[in-house]
Amino acid sequence: MPTVYDVARLAGVSTATVSRVMRGSDLVRPVTRDRVLAVIEEVGFVPDASAQGLSRRRKEIIGLVGLERGVDETDIERDGLLFVDVVVHAVEAVLRGTDTSLLLSFGPSGEPFHNRIRALSGKVDGLLVVEDVLAPAQLRALARRLPVVAIAASAAGAGLDVVRVDNPAGMRELTNHLTGHHGYRRLGFVGGPRDAPDAVERLSAFSSAARTVSGGTVDVVPGGDFSEASGRTAARVLLGREAIPEAVACANDQMAIGVMRELQRSGIDVPGDVAVTGFDNIFPGRVVEPALTTVGQPVRDLGVRAAARLLERIEGSTEPARAETLPTELVIRRSCGCPAEPKE
Amino acid sequence: MPTVYDVARLAGVSTATVSRVMRGSDLVRPVTRDRVLAVIEEVGFVPDASAQGLSRRRKEIIGLVGLERGVDETDIERDGLLFVDVVVHAVEAVLRGTDTSLLLSFGPSGEPFHNRIRALSGKVDGLLVVEDVLAPAQLRALARRLPVVAIAASAAGAGLDVVRVDNPAGMRELTNHLTGHHGYRRLGFVGGPRDAPDAVERLSAFSSAARTVSGGTVDVVPGGDFSEASGRTAARVLLGREAIPEAVACANDQMAIGVMRELQRSGIDVPGDVAVTGFDNIFPGRVVEPALTTVGQPVRDLGVRAAARLLERIEGSTEPARAETLPTELVIRRSCGCPAEPKE
DNA sequence: AACACGGATGTAACCGCTTACAACCGAGGA
DNA sequence: TCCTCGGTTGTAAGCGGTTACATCCGTGTT
Predict the structure, then answer these.
(1) Nearest Cβ partner of A123 from B61, B118, B144?
(2) In the sheet where A186-190 sits, what is the strand order?
(3) Closest alpha carbon within chain B to A61
(4) Average pLDDT of chain A?
């Protein structure tokens, strides 16, 4: 691999000049610049990022760490992809306008992954942390070492930048639709993983909203893992109850799809006998039968805002840390009992 | 940020010893090691990866570059996620057992992205290239600079490691099912992007297989972009034909779903009037009505094998470059005209 | 003609870690 | 007692860029 020294020698200049050309400095005579560029092109010189990073104290890399949920490989392949991947693509899109790249790492929360993240922190200029991969204390320790922005994390706590979605508002809106517009009273809820703050927030918002209407009851099936399979399991649990709720809300769309399919398999009509709703507004929810009523969240924006914020921090922004909450949107389709939408 | 020098001073040893402790060398007296570790823990020392990389000539980072297709952000969010993301997760899973991390970058093929990749090559020890992001010549130039493994690339050409899927075999098997088992003769095909070698291979395999049966004709609608929306567009094109094919195969599942939905919207029964099939076996294909008959490909394995191969190359393996072809699997569900599967 | 000045270029120190080699130390052997 | 030897630790030279500072050179001044 050619180095600046090789280029300098071949172009008959010093390494300083080569470096100046690479970085686009304007105090190089055009004729010199061209000579250097020609050599660079000829030998295919690409600067070593480690050397640059060491010298400039800037690696031009940010990291993103998130949870890897499915234990079953097939699950990962089929179900687990949506949330974090959308965030990744959004972040990458923001980075496309800069010189920095995205390093990523997934893992199950726990000691080994924590160590991995620690080592990773030596490779990057800043870190995006998705959901609760780290305990609050660990997160805070990390944030002392380098800029950190949390995405969809519960640890809104003091002095941390967080970007998240307004789960309570979305859930309230959905609940009002179910209890107000449709008049359902006996409600059910299929919960998600405990380490997903989103899931926790959704459940509590649903419960409290549901209980404000007179006669509203909530039958909670906890402990899903956001997969379609766990939705089916939850449906079986509900089928074993004395009375099945009139409407079942789920902590995310995939579980909702699982619930619907399992109910249908048992001859129950959705939404005729039981209404089912999701949360997230992912693609499959549009194509299932009946189409899924859900709450849409601006996942992509989540990534965009978090990336932008992190870049500012890396640039040295010192404005106080702040939690940014993005709005959700109720998406009414047919699984709640509403008629088919006119459009489409 | 504390450095080895700080740690060395505080522990009363030399930087060499600190380094030896960090790297787990066995020629450090246990008592010394413990003292050093205590200091490391206390000051929260994390080695700077740039300095390590420079010194060791190893960055412990590999890159993955792939195409970003959807121009429309919404499309990306809803449709575009599956193939490359599965690969990413698979690669990441392999890396989890090592000290190396994954750097990734997406972009539309073209000059700007090529430059980005070039710069990126200074940050990594090796590169995974998904589909045809680069022209063969560029790919080859890259491969001269550092280890490269191509995934699902057409450039099987000389001297390049490639891991891919046996599209022709899968397509042949599917075609045989349609023409043999079901006896369809007037066939249609909805093609994918020209820069997706998979799409190209699938089309040509389908065409040649279909034409080997007597009376087999193929009505090709080219130029889809793998999105559901482009499937709908293709369906509209087919609806404008004098005669709609008896069976329409699509270059991927998402387009197949689009085709089905658009046909159904026009009152056409699938599979009663027209059979539709996909390719990929993604999650939504299982939940649509009718469930989609498709060809499953081991996307995850693609990532796993490619990552493993790249790591070997980085370790210095000099065995000759080789193309590895993974098998596909016919997944029969209902959209081809077969009755519902007994199980599930 | 001597001199000041500013633009272009070169010199060399430094970024933080690794590692070849040197130095040191205590124990065992002659 | 002196030497050898193996195990432990220290010294210092890189790794490949960047950049503060020094140097050089051609003009314009006086």
Answers:
(1) B61
(2) A217-221, A186-190, A247-250, A275-277
(3) B103
(4) 90
